[in-house]
């Protein structure tokens, strides 16, 4: 559909006269309900009629339907849809469900012809329903569908797994035990792989990449080596579909027998099973399900008879549409590659994200330094407020540096420590177990380097530091700019350095996400769930909740979307007393429905006059006799806790990638055995931009920075704020001018990612 048509179309009229049915099929996955909710509410927003297909867990029921596999069953389904005037189908499920849906669409014309022939429907009814549009959303905890970085439910399943790993870790350390943890993934090792990466497991077994022959000896050597280095526990993660190179199953019991008999270690096995499917969805899955639901409705209403059935996917941070059967084909190609022993191909076909996870895990899992040292000294430091995931980034940077042959140094207490000489060598074993620890093990302060440059340069020279990894929030970014500007005055600062964004506020220019923001978002979302639940027996109550973020409204907005808030007040989206009045009126109307609770989020610095206390007093006064109010300021609990799987994985990838970049940059900057880096591209921010991790010169980001309010001038998440308002049933306009075009999974050369 052309952009011109988009800009002239009223989104509230797009679905008028159309009917949409939504169904969930296959195994249930956390986040499916968020996708259903978004599909229904956005469908209604566009003027369409929306239907549930029950048993189609989720709110509407999820099932694997045998009847649908035969033509007679599909004829019944077609008849039901035609009678209701439904020609748009949104299917949430795995590859089997989506393949069945595509077959249904392919057979549609023939099914209608047979129904007319059998007298089940009239010719007129067949004509009105001559074409069936299908859009899929992938709901699967295994993340086994090619074409999307994350399927709905995967992040929540990782939360369940990591919760168990963290609990096991404490008991295993107490008794010096080896724990074998079996996770789901009959044909896909994503859960096992990312869990291993997120907890620093000693070994992982996945079906896509079986261990080499003789793995039993290698595994026992590795476990024994870890114990000899002082480790009190070993963790082995096994995907349920793990196999040997010749296709034989590798079971948890088999591994336990091996470790017990060969090493004599006290070994325990835990099989997680269906606990991975249960529980409340993570904030990521709620937001993902909501975003995918909105995109699915748009894709259905924009489809023409020539548009192939598509699946709404996630690529990096972007919602994309891909031809459904291309994705199904690549998914089948992975299975075929594994069956024929082409395991390298299987990993590649899983996509870049999977391959990057595998390569990062292989590098960081076990010490394997080169024979020749690089004679390079790299220092790692934390700047600004502490956040969950910082330690994972430090661990990855330290270990990757050692693998590259560098000598790694830890700088304690930020730029203050760099100025005062609080610098020590840091080893492989020092950072063991850091992935799952919250806060900052190195210590961190908000002090900027500007007034400490003399002392900082003396210590850089004294410790012969050749490169810096600066992990932190807005202070890390500003500190990096100050170091860059001081290069003209101090030659010692002519060394390459990289800033890794790590802050709950998610306000560092150059990155869509910061390490720590996901953990904070989950803390807020979980707390909001509990707050709302506290009113389950109390009718007509509105909660006002204040979140962190400085002037950045990311946490308030995303938590509002994840927790189903009625409003989220932020600095970037200006509001007046008229808006506040409208919000109160909206809640008054809501109290007349079956849902008699309200949730209002306020970013801490959204408005100097409309304070949290002011909002509480306003809502309390205007809601007298209709609802009462409660005030909650979440405070520093948002910075604490153990990091989520996302932040552990993100921090690990960022730390590892920063060292690889510095290693290449050091080679570029070496002249006659001396490091001299004075170009702007030798001082970068490593950030997630749309579809991948990119390095951007820190100097180039100045123009996109609001230094007064410590936020980037352009922020991607502002574009999805209207979704929260639409899902809260506000009458607003959704900007449909920026639409998503259909992309392709396969290149022209065959089954390889573009």
Automatic annotation (TrEMBL):
The record ties this protein, via Pfam families, to:
PFK (PF00365)
Q: Does the keyword Ubl conjugation apply?
A: no
Which residue range or ranges hold the Phosphofructokinase domain? 53-299, 377-661
Q: Name one GO biological process term.
A: fructose 6-phosphate metabolic process
Keywords attached to this Swiss-Prot or TrEMBL record, sorted alphabetically, are: Acetylation, Allosteric enzyme, ATP-binding, Cytoplasm, Glycolysis, Glycoprotein, Hydroxylation, Kinase, Magnesium, Metal-binding, Nucleotide-binding, Phosphoprotein, Transferase
Q: In which pathway does it act?
A: Carbohydrate degradation; glycolysis; D-glyceraldehyde 3-phosphate and glycerone phosphate from D-glucose: step 3/4
Q: Which PROSITE patterns match?
A: PHOSPHOFRUCTOKINASE
What Gene Ontology cellular component terms go with this record?
Answer: 6-phosphofructokinase complex; membrane
Named cofactor requirement(s): Mg(2+)
SUPFAM superfamilies per record? Phosphofructokinase (SSF53784)
Q: Which Gene3D superfamilies match?
A: 3.40.50.450, Phosphofructokinase domain
Organismal lineage: Eukaryota, Metazoa, Chordata, Craniata, Vertebrata
Reactions mediated catalytically? beta-D-fructose 6-phosphate + ATP = beta-D-fructose 1,6-bisphosphate + ADP + H(+)
Q: Which family does it belong to?
A: Belongs to the phosphofructokinase type A (PFKA) family. ATP-dependent PFK group I subfamily. Eukaryotic two domain clade "E" sub-subfamily.
User: What Gene Ontology molecular function terms does this protein carry?
Assistant: 6-phosphofructokinase activity; AMP binding; ATP binding; fructose-6-phosphate binding; identical protein binding; metal ion binding; monosaccharide binding
| InterPro entries associated with the record | 6-Pfructokinase_euk (IPR009161), ATP_PFK (IPR022953), Phosphofructokinase_CS (IPR015912), Phosphofructokinase_dom (IPR000023), PKF_sf (IPR035966)
User: Has the keyword NAD been applied to this entry?
Assistant: no
Full protein name: 6-phosphofructokinase
Give the enzyme's EC designation: 2.7.1.11
């Amino acid at each position: 559909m052309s952009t011109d048509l988009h800009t002239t179309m009223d989104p509230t009229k797009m679905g008028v006269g159309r009917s949409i049915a939504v169904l969930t099929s296959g195994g249930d996955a956390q986040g499916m309900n968020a996708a259903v909710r978004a599909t229904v509410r956005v469908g209604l927003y566009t003027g369409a009629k929306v239907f549930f297909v029950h048993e189609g867990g989720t709110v509407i029921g999820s099932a694997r339907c045998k009847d649908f596999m035969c033509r007679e069953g599909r004829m019944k389904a077609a008849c039901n849809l035609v009678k209701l005037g439904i020609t748009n189908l949104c299917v949430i499920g795995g590859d089997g469900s989506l393949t069945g849906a595509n077959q249904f669409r392919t057979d549609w014309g023939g099914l209608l012809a047979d129904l007319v022939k059998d007298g089940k429907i009239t010719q007129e009814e067949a004509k009105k329903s001559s074409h069936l549009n299908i859009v899929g959303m992938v709901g699967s905890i295994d993340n086994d569908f090619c074409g999307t970085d994350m399927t709905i439910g995967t992040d929540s399943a990782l939360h369940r797994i990591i919760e168990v790993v963290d609990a096991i870790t404490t008991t295993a350390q107490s008794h010096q035990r080896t724990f074998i943890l079996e996770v789901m993934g009959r044909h896909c090792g994503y859960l096992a792989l990312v869990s291993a990466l997120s907890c620093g497991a000693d070994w992982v077994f996945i079906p896509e990449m079986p261990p080499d022959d003789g793995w039993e000896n290698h595994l026992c050597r590795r476990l024994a080596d870890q114990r000899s280095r002082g480790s009190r526990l070993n963790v082995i993660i096994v995907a349920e579909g793990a196999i040997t190179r010749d296709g034989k199953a590798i079971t948890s019991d088999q591994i336990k027998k091996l470790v017990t008999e060969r090493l004599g270690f006290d070994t325990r096995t835990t099989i997680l099973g269906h606990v991975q499917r249960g529980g409340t969805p993570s904030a990521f899955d709620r937001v993902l399900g909501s975003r995918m639901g909105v995109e699915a409705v748009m894709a259905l209403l924009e489809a023409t008879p020539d548009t192939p059935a598509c699946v709404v996917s996630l690529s990096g941070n972007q919602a994309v549409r891909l031809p459904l059967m291309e994705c199904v084909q690549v998914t089948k190609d992975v299975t075929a590659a594994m069956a024929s022993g082409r395991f390298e191909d299987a990993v590649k076909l899983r996509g870049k994200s999977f391959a990057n996870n595998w390569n990062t895990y292989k590098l960081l899992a076990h010490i394997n330094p080169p024979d020749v040292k690089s004679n390079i000294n790299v220092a790692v430091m934390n700047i600004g407020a502490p956040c969950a995931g910082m330690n994972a980034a430090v661990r990855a940077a330290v270990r990757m540096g050692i693998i590259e042959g560098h000598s790694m140094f830890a700088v304690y207490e930020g730029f203050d420590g760099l100025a005062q000489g609080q610098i020590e060598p840091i080893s492989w074993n020092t950072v063991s177990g850091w992935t799952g620890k919250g806060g900052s093990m190195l210590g961190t302060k908000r002090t900027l380097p500007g007034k400490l440059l003399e002392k900082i340069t003396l210590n850089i020279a004294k410790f012969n530091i050749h490169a810096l990894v600066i992990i932190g929030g807005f202070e890390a970014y500003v500190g990096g700019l100050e170091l860059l500007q001081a290069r003209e005055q101090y030659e010692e600062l002519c060394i390459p350095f990289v800033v890794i964004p790590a802050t709950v506020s998610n306000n560092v220019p150059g990155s869509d996400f910061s390490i720590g923001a996901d953990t904070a978002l989950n803390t807020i979302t979980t707390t909001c769930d509990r707050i709302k639940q506290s009113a389950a027996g109390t009718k007509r109550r509105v909660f006002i909740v204040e979140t962190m973020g400085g002037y950045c409204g990311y946490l308030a907005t995303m938590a509002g979307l994840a927790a189903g808030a009625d409003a989220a007040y932020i600095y970037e989206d200006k509001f007046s007393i008229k808006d506040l009045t409208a919000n109160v009126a909206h809640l008054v109307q809501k109290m007349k429905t079956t849902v008699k609770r309200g949730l209002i989020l306020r970013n801490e610095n959204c408005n100097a006059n409309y304070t949290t206390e002011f909002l509480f007093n306003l809502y309390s006064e205007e809601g007298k006799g209709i609802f009462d109010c409660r005030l909650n300021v979440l405070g520093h609990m948002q910075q604490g806790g153990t990091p989520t799987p996302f932040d552990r994985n993100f921090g690990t990838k960022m730390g590892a990638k920063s060292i690889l970049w510095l290693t290449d940059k050091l080679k570029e900057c070496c002249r006659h055995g001396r490091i001299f880096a004075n170009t702007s591209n030798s001082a970068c921010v490593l950030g997630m931009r749309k579809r991948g991790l990119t390095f951007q010169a820190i100097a180039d980001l100045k123009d996109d920075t609001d230094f007064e309010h410590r936020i980037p001038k352009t922020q991607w998440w502002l574009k999805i704020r209207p979704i929260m308002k639409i899902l809260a049933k506000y009458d607003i306009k959704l900007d449909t001018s920026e639409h998503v075009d259909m992309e392709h999974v396969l290149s022209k050369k065959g089954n390889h990612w573009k």
